[in-house]
């Protein structure tokens, strides 16, 4: 009997990648969607198996084609990548499961197989990054996922998506090319592309300029991809004008994958070898993180388009994740990785609820959703849960991540107090911008005309979408009350990241 | 000084091309010109990789009968760059496709015009 669990890291990427051309061929309506959903669910199952294995202390390494590590292509899964895999595949499966009706409305029927093929390629690229243990393969997966997500974002009927996607394409390609320059310079100095091997060999040349330049290029390139302030300008419009279900998928995981790579590269390759790199890392990124938190939340306060409002809130949340990492401590990194998980939950649920709203309301403008809670009590209920999770109300997943972040900041002494002030201030801002949606929805005084009032009971979103939204909302509560899974994975991830830091 | 410049000639080519491409991406308003700039920008990086695989006096890495002490150039960067070139071509093609769609929807490929139309 062959032990299949050995092949799980490879299958994780291969299943969605091979289903993509298949989805292209499935012509009758709905089959392509079914194929994409099946592949996503399968990938989700693999991610769960990998996570269970990692929790049991197993580490997965996989030599492609049986070529040994520094020469062949290596895949590897540890606690950090397992957590990312769960988030990505889970977001894809939930978005596809609930989003069929919404996608039918957004995508023309004859283009649907193409759209789902692009979706699967985006999924394959996104899961490929946490799985790959080789700097160049990461670049290839990054570009597969980016190219596919440009197609996804531009796939809808909103023409404003096109300039937004063009901007995203330009900035994303510059980011990826910067990363490629950095990797090239390191390859020039060390002659290896395998991350583990690179970390060892870079020691001998760590004092040389090209390595420092490479660190700069890689950090900036990945920061561009991850929408770190002030390189986030592509994000709000791209998320706002994308089809709603695509926003659910990408909003939950796309930038986190780049952040994952940024942390992994920095902590694995540069921190142990470059003198004083941890100080440079935190001096450079901490102010950016604080600015992202304050400005992202501040802009969200004044936005009136629902999706753009929460896109700016994503900019702030990316700031939180970076803030945790820039503390360079076990507690800080744990907080940062827990945030990746919990923010994906909260933001995914929010965008799912927004998709529900979009099924019944023509414009996602704050003025248009007055009285929404009367027609769609369940949708707004899920929205409130996810909104509270975003703010960090106790009992929701968001509280756990804020708690860990504040505990980590407290360890830092005086500067920690200032950071806590920033976190508390921006949590209050988050409460305000979430409330700006809840207030008109529940207490808005839009006067429904007679026929609207009669059909009020039938105006709830499609039941499948609603069920998926509630599953996600309940997950927010579940992981708020029983956070052991993300917390265990995150503290293991922090341990792995800090293992080599002096 | 002259010698230093000549010794590092390939790096100068890389840096100058990189900057030309980057300038076009940032400064040009025409979307096609932006994409061409992006291509130049990427091509510069391809050249960086290609030059670093070259070994002084090395030949193509092909094993031939009768020759057993040949010096080979490193083939790996070429393999990598082949992949990266494919990625670059896909990006340019997709970008041009988006420009065509923008032209269909907005009737212009000038950034200012598009922003102006969206603002209305």
Automatic annotation (TrEMBL), chain A:
Listed transmembrane segments: 6-26, 33-55, 75-98, 114-132, 138-156, 168-190, 210-233, 245-263, 283-302, 309-331, 337-359, 380-401, 413-435, 464-481
Cleaved signal peptide residues: none
Subcellular locations according to the entry: Cell membrane; Membrane
Domain of life: Bacteria
UniProt-listed GO biological process terms: ATP synthesis coupled electron transport
Chief location category: membrane
One GO CC term, this protein: plasma membrane
Membrane topology: Multi-pass membrane protein
Alphabetical keyword list: Cell membrane, Membrane, Transmembrane, Transmembrane helix
Any Pfam family hit: Proton_antipo_M
Species this protein is from: Arenicella xantha
GO molecular function annotations of the record: NADH dehydrogenase (ubiquinone) activity
Domain NADH:quinone oxidoreductase/Mrp antiporter transmembrane: 133-423
Similarity-based family: Belongs to the CPA3 antiporters (TC 2.A.63) subunit D family.
Protein name stated in the entry: Multisubunit sodium/proton antiporter MrpD subunit
InterPro entries noted in UniProt: CPA3_Na-H_Antiporter_D, NADH_UbQ_OxRdtase, ND/Mrp_TM
From TrEMBL, chain B:
InterPro entries in the record: CPA3_antiporter_subunitC, NUOK/Mnh_C1-like
Source superkingdom: Bacteria
Chain ranges passing through the membrane: 6-26, 79-100
Signal peptide: none
Compartments, record wording: Cell membrane
Topology with respect to the bilayer: Multi-pass membrane protein
Any one of the GO CC terms: plasma membrane
Swiss-Prot/TrEMBL keywords: Cell membrane, Membrane, Transmembrane, Transmembrane helix
UniProt-listed NCBIfam families: PRK07375.1-6, PRK07375.2-3
Entry similarity comment: Belongs to the CPA3 antiporters (TC 2.A.63) subunit C family.
Protein name: Multisubunit sodium/proton antiporter MrpC subunit
The species this protein was found in: Arenicella xantha
Lineage: Bacteria, Pseudomonadati, Pseudomonadota, Gammaproteobacteria, Arenicellales
